[in-house]
Design brief:
Low-confidence stretches: 7-14, 71-82, 433-447
Number of helices: 8
Helix content: 10-25%
Largest sheet: 8 strands, antiparallel
Structural class: alpha+beta
Mean pLDDT: 84
Number of strands: 25
Radius of gyration: 24 Å
Length: 447
């Protein structure tokens, strides 16, 4: 039997970090990503040659590293990032999935998409401009999505003569704002993406800075959590009943553990029915195991022949989410057509999809100052607002603050399957008390 201590040791080394980048126009985000890929030796020779050739045609002597990330023709022509681009690279210490997201207001939905699964967000600021309106938007989106680690990369330090007071003032302003939104950890790093200062290699121009480079922080930031403390959740994807001579009575429930840990012999509840049973066995890659944890894909076997089907949620009997048909949530509207009160939709939560109706849109969030615009009547593309949805069938839904996986959902157009909105159940921002420090809240963030 694996003990909690042994399990914690197995989970203590995280080999994969998902992170997202965001920055205003001309803050140098694409250059930072290109520099990160280039200096970490994550660029193929033919890619670098293509960038060098394109740069020469533009009359540039040095390769424009931003071209490594801006893949769409419109992005290259305008010098902006439009779509979310996922980059995969690795160092000897960790593997990375980078979501390069746009910084424009009209592409807020793209940032939400890229940051929704991120464990860290890199927010760029131009040292000459400091914290601007769009910087606050990026911090607000990261806080809404409960991204547990935020890096403030103060870029273009070479254009302010690497002045420490400039960096310190920006870092202080941003950290105070992000902490007020409930972001549990903020790390500020002064960089020059164009010159390579503090991106991969330490800068010789900023000896006053003793912290990590961007890559060093990405390689060492602790993203592993004690999953034994998380709410265990198992959405059922498929019921396995071979009914063969070899396995005449086998009945297993296959899926991916969304959060937490499951053990053989543990009492569980099947939701939304509320029926109870005990885990009789766990099958993992053809072998029987006595314990399994997120994000492993396993098959659970129960000791009783209870009615379980795709879309049901298996949870510990003493730690089950509430079942409801009235969902109050914050949503980011991603479709071009608006979301309106009275609209009929489909709500997809984990492996369960149910009919629903939008009963109310109480408010729309203004990201500029975090004010609420009451009763907007509808949400249009890139809007973030509060909604009340009534579902035709009960859902076992966690608060997004408790679990990013089982507290999120999608609203879908039943006519053509278009995704309308991405939803986060429960309160908008994390509650912050005066006595709370950013790092004290880290254990409460589950992803």
């Amino acid at each position: 039997m694996t003990t909690p201590t042994q399990l914690a040791e197995q989970l203590s080394t995280t080999t994969l970090l998902r992170f997202a980048t965001a920055g205003s126009v001309d803050d140098g985000k694409s250059t930072l990503v290109g520099r990160l890929l280039h200096d970490s030796k994550s660029v193929l020779t033919d890619q670098l040659e293509a960038v060098e050739d394109a740069s020469r045609k533009r009359g540039q002597e040095a390769p424009d590293l931003a071209l490594l990330t801006d893949g769409l023709r419109a992005e290259r022509e305008q010098g902006i990032t439009i779509d979310v681009a996922y980059r995969y690279f690795a160092t000897t210490r960790r593997r990375f999935i980078l979501a390069d997201t746009p910084g424009h207001v009209q592409y807020t939905r793209n940032m939400v998409t890229g940051a929704s699964t991120a464990e860290l967000a890199v927010v760029l600021v131009d040292a000459r401009n400091g914290v601007v309106e769009q910087t606050r938007r990026h911090a607000a989106v990261a806080a809404l999505l409960r991204v547990p680690h935020v890096v403030l990369a103060v870029n273009k330090m070479d254009l302010v003569e690497y002045a420490e007071p400039v960096f310190a003032a920006i870092a202080e302003e941003f950290t105070a704002y992000a902490a007020s939104l409930g972001v549990p950890e903020i790390t500020a790093i002064p960089i020059s993406a164009l010159a390579g200062d503090n991106v991969v290699e330490p800068s010789a121009n900023m000896d006053w800075y003793g912290g990590p480079t961007v890559l060093e922080h990405l390689e060492t930031v602790p993203v592993s959590h004690d999953l034994t403390a998380c709410h265990a959740r198992f959405p059922v994807q498929y019921v396995i009943r071979p009914q063969t001579a070899e396995h005449p009575d086998y009945r297993g429930y296959a899926g991916q553990i969304a959060a937490g840990v499951f053990r053989v012999g543990e009492p569980v509840t099947v939701l939304p029915s509320g029926r109870t049973s005990t885990i009789a066995g766990i099958d993992l890659l053809g072998d029987s195991v006595d314990i399994a944890w997120a994000p492993q894909s396993v098959t659970l076997r129960l000791s009783d022949d209870v009615d379980v089907s795709r879309g049901d949620l298996i949870a510990p009997a003493n730690d089950s989410p509430a079942v409801t048909q009235d969902v109050e949530a914050t949503v980011c509207h991603v479709a071009d057509r608006p979301l309106t009160v009275g609209q009929r939709v489909l709500l997809k939560h984990t492996t369960r999809t149910v009919k629903a109706i939008v009963k109310d849109i109480p408010s729309r969030l203004t990201l500029d100052d975090l004010s609420q615009h009451p009763a907007p009547g509808q949400l249009v593309a890139n809007d973030i607002g509060r909604v009340v949805v009534r579902t035709a069938e009960p859902l076992a839904l966690d608060a997004y603050a408790d679990s990013r996986r089982t507290g999120s959902f999608l609203l879908i157009d039943p006519a053509d399957g278009t995704t309308l909105s991405a939803g986060m159940a429960g309160a908008s921002f994390a509650a912050v008390t005066e006595a709370q420090t950013p790092s004290d809240d880290d254990a409460e963030w589950d992803f």
